[in-house]
Amino acid sequence: xxxxxxxxxxxxxxxxxxxxxxGETLNIFKRTLLAGLKQEKNLFFCINDNPWEYHFEAxxxxxxxxxxxxxxxxxxxxxxxxxxxxKIPLDNWDQFGDFSLFTLRRFLNLxx
Length: 112
What we know:
Order of helices and strands: EEHEEHEH
Radius of gyration: 13 Å
Shape: globular
Largest sheet: 5 strands, antiparallel
Strand order of the largest sheet: 1-2-5-3-4
Strand content: 25-35%
């Protein structure tokens, strides 16, 4: 899990938590993850072909509930990585501890 300080150029500043899977680890959890994402809301799915971009602009992340299972599967097939993130505004820094633990639980539930 990555905990980067996010700065969208010209946009909001936020804290984010990211689940980043690739390679053999992704292969192990892919089916479980896909099933879990079908029921998930309020998370962001990376649609970029570059796994090292962390901004939340529409060219990089989309709300998971706005993507079909087919789009998600095609992204995985074409790029061999998955990044799923959530964020809170930087002004809510005092909630970051609770937010990060809650987000970790959500990520772990996606992999069960």
